[in-house]
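Journal club prep — side note

Before the paper discussion, L.F. wants everyone to see what a predicted structure for a comparable chain looks like in token form. Sequence:
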Amino acid sequence: MKKRFFELYSKASQNNGLFIVLCFSYIVYIFLLSVINKTVAQVVNFASLALCFLLIAAVGMDLKRFFKTPDAKILVCSALLALSLTGLLVRLAEVYLNISLPFYIKAAVCILLFIAAVLFWTAVKSFVQILLETETRFPAEKDSGVFWIVFFFSVNSLFLLWSIYYPSGVSTDTWNQLAQIRGDIPYSDIHAIAHTIFLKLLFRIGENFSAVIFVQICGVGFINAFFAQWLNGRGLPLIWILPPLAFNLAGCSRFILCYVYPWKDAPYTFCLCYICYMTIRLINQPGKKPGVLKAALLGVALAFASLFRYNGIIASVFCGGWLFVYFLKNKAWKPFAATLFAAAISVAAVSLYSGKVLHTQSPENGFSVQVFGSGIAAVVAGEGNISPELLSRIEEIFSIDYIKENYKPWETKRLIWTDETGIAGEFKDRPDLQVFNNRFVLAMGERRQELVRLYLELLPRNPGLMARDVIYNTYAVWGTEFYQDYFYSNSLAVLAILFLALEFWGKAMIKRHWAVFAPVACNMISVAISTITNETRYLLPTFALFPFLLMYVLWAAGRSSGYFQD
């Protein structure tokens, strides 16, 4: 029965069924969007997806296996989810409801959520095991049509969203880069100059950012299509690929707004996605060396991961180090040379064009040390352990009154984004500093070394206050920026699901495949240690890669058991 169901369902989805569903959903979405409002459309969208998942889950469900004793991995990912949900509820209570919850209530909520999560993950694991233990086998499908199905499916979904924001969304960063491109202010590297150059090239097509958004949407389509084609070519049916991809592109997933804004997050994400994609290919084709062109594109991706976003340097260095070892072990000298040469040329080209042609300025960038400034502000505002000598040194850099007025738990970004209109006159003769809003940011940039020294001296005296500040500053990673979109602004929930999927891997498989997760891990770590702004968009690579990493983990587990035939 199950084998027959999958055969029929897979064929229907790849033929008339897919076309009918796409057309019908398109019409319903437009109708709801225009007649009611987009929130209702999003609810209907998710309700439809939920029904699809329930239909799939209903086949072959064995309830007797749901409540087996969980193992260590289920306990770990249950703890991750419980901590994440508890953090969400605490933040909602403290920020939105203005209620201070006592510790015992927080602990009780966390324990109850942990128990519920254990039951939930055990159920999920049981269902997947049932699937993997069936006699169904999916042979490799060398179907080129999958590539274009997924491409147009992705592009269609994002074009719907783009229609709301056409020609593009804008932000403070966008206006500043646009002013540089138009020659209103000098070029500066406050925002990654490589991304400003990228915008400058595409901006020549028209007098708005529509060309940029079009390129970004097509980029999403190609990235999704490459992953889907690779997985499908190794036995994963299209019907397994489309539901998580549709969920990933659903309208109420906050992170996809990054694709209709001309921000640096989208091209940065494409770089990490390509690195992840090539890592998967290299791991699963150990005896086959990559072509020179693919290796060169890999070098470009490694370089621009850090050129598009400064925190991308962590991913570039770590993933580049793994690739260096891989090429040496496999004696892949030509691919290694192509990767290294392409990366060096990319960095040199941006550097030369930026310096010799654009004459890019380098103002003292206070944003680069914002984490240290926030930690010091936490101690000052929280009346921590500060000696008179240390307080005097802090007063030489910052306004104590400004810190006490603007340091707010969960909202530390006020420190760097509060607009001090009273000092606007200081910027009239320094147009390159117009992106800075207040003296706090200016002071951090001008006294960076002293700031780090103060932070390190205050840390042993105030470990509790400064640790709490780190937790507040990283809620975009472990909590949520918009509580309506809990899952898609919560990396712990993503990690919990991926960790559960690893339950189906043995130690040998983990040792072989762990590098696939490196781009996501590096991105999350870099965001956690480098910013206090707490914007979900910084984690875009994590959420863009999530459905494919999940499918990859399950595919690798199924392949080892013979479920998928490569």
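L.F.'s comment for the group: The first strand starts at residue 138 and ends at 139. Keep this in mind when we get to the figures.
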